[in-house]
Amino acid sequence: ALSEKLKKTLKTLRGESKLTEAHINAAMTDIRIALLEADVNYGVVKQFVERVREKALGQEVWQALSPAQQVVKIVFDEMVELLGGGAASDLAFTSQTPNVILMVGLQGSGKTTSTGKLARFLAQQRKRHPLLVSVDVYRPAARDQLSVIGKAIGIPVYEDPTTDDPFKLARAAYREAQLRGFDTLLVDTAGRLHIDDELMVELAQLKAELHPVETLFVADAMIGQDAVRSATEFHERIGLTGVILSKMDGDARGGAALSIRSMTGQPIKFVGVGEKYDALEPFYPDRIAQRILGMGDVLSLIEKVQQEVDEAEALRLQQRMLENRFTLEDYRAQLRQVGKLGSLDKLLGMLPDGLLPGLNLRLTPQQTQMMQRKLKETEAIINSMTKQEREDHTLLAASASRRRRVARGSGTSVRQVEELLKEFSIMRRMMQQMTRGGLFGGLGGLFG
Ligand code: GDP
Ligand code: MG
């Protein structure tokens, strides 16, 4: 699986302190193979990897993140962009009602189900008044299926069992919507197992007559590359405005999303995540990218680090560590950075197992509370020191009366002050031994 491959790649990057061209090339080779294995289209992969490589090479070294995390971040950002950027795209409704939405796709892709789901979504979330119609006159029970769904979700379905003409049905439903004030008409069309001319001509004609605001291609995420091929062909023959990716509740990693978006240039607008009628979600590129990469919540962690950590400060602290000039003052600054990241248990919970050695521990609520308290106490102790003492911790080591004063001032005990001094000395020693610095490297001391 992609995630396994990527994890392996990241493992080789772990422990490196700088992102070099050699790292990037090695990582890109693996990512390329992994994406191909995940059934992403060859051309798409090639283009993707090239763009990631360029970005990675031009990237300044981000000290708060390890090289492995940097690669993940770049790959992730690029993937989100390729999937269409920020939020899910909306539907292009106009004031000229009824607005028609044409649902197209291969047989079994989930058109009829998605028609119901979308109608329900629009009624509930967008306060629209949809009417449904099925023009799938070829399969015997196809129209009944939509009627059953309509009843289940409480949305009217236009029916006329006396005709087998898809155009007549569509026109009559359109008139019905106009007359009765439905602002949206969802047209569920016939599918075939394979693309054939007859169907394409019919769909193109329906489109020409109905002037839909949206022509949505329903793609079965489970069939991977085949879905990509048919999406491309549907787009060439009838012109799509968007895609609904169905059956994403299955094992599909969503590699098809990447290819379809990239090959057709059309946005994925919704994702089907189950057989129930409420199992439709707007498409969020970042969620799918996360799924394709299979990186758990590590990306949320990276985002958070980038938002919250003052990089200049992190750099400064790291420099001081390297030069062995790290003081209690710096220690306090570092603790404040950690404090900004929010609750520690959440932070640690975001890390997937094995990605960051030494940090992949799970804490009990009691341990977390203890750690939070300790962070606060440590800061209080350092606050009670004089500037001189903070700059030179040996002053405190040498004087019991100074330690007593600091303990009193911070509302802690002399023993706690002494413990902190001991930990700080150990940390300084550890830092010197560490080649891999950065925020997390420095944090190691806290957990040691
Ligand atoms: P159509 O031939 O394109 O109209 O496809 P249908 O809407 O009849 O769906 C075919 C099958 O796929 C049905 O059994 C649906 O319940 C199922 N299906 C559709 N969408 C989803 C989905 O998002 N998740 C799952 N698990 N099943 C789905
Ligand atoms: Mg159907």
TrEMBL record:
PANTHER family: SIGNAL RECOGNITION PARTICLE 54K PROTEIN SRP54 (PTHR11564), SIGNAL RECOGNITION PARTICLE SUBUNIT SRP54 (PTHR11564:SF5)
Subcellular location: Cytoplasm
CDD domains (UniProt xref): SRP_G
The name this protein goes by in its record: Signal recognition particle protein
Complex formation: Part of the signal recognition particle protein translocation system, which is composed of SRP and FtsY.
Class of enzymatic activity (EC top level): hydrolase
NCBIfam families: ffh (TIGR00959)
GO cellular component: signal recognition particle
InterPro entries assigned to the protein according to its UniProt record, in alphabetical order: AAA+_ATPase (IPR003593), P-loop_NTPase (IPR027417), Signal_recog_part_SRP54_M_sf (IPR036891), Signal_recog_particl_SRP54_hlx (IPR013822), Signal_recog_particle_SRP54_M (IPR004125), SRP (IPR004780), SRP54 (IPR022941), SRP54_GTPase_dom (IPR000897)
Source species: Chloracidobacterium thermophilum (strain B)
Alphabetical list of Pfam families matching this protein: SRP54 (PF00448), SRP54_N (PF02881), SRP_SPB (PF02978)
Recorded family membership: Belongs to the GTP-binding SRP family. SRP54 subfamily.
Xref: Gene3D superfamilies: P-loop containing nucleotide triphosphate hydrolases (3.40.50.300), Signal recognition particle SRP54, nucleotide-binding domain (1.20.120.140), Signal recognition particle, SRP54 subunit, M-domain (1.10.260.30)
The protein's Enzyme Commission number: 3.6.5.4
Catalytic reactions of this protein: GTP + H2O = GDP + phosphate + H(+)
Coiled coil segments of this chain: 295-325
Keywords for this protein: Coiled coil, Cytoplasm, GTP-binding, Hydrolase, Membrane, Nucleotide-binding, Ribonucleoprotein, RNA-binding, Signal recognition particle, Transmembrane, Transmembrane helix
Gene name in the database record: ffh
HAMAP family referenced in this protein's UniProt entry, alphabetically: SRP54
A GO MF label: GTPase activity
Domain of life where this protein originates: Bacteria
Entry text on domains: Composed of three domains: the N-terminal N domain, which is responsible for interactions with the ribosome, the central G domain, which binds GTP, and the C-terminal M domain, which binds the RNA and the signal sequence of the RNC.
Binding site for GTP: 105-112, 188-192, 246-249
GO biological process: SRP-dependent cotranslational protein targeting to membrane
Role: Involved in targeting and insertion of nascent membrane proteins into the cytoplasmic membrane. Binds to the hydrophobic signal sequence of the ribosome-nascent chain (RNC) as it emerges from the ribosomes. The SRP-RNC complex is then targeted to the cytoplasmic membrane where it interacts with the SRP receptor FtsY.
Residues annotated as domain SRP54-type proteins GTP-binding: 267-280
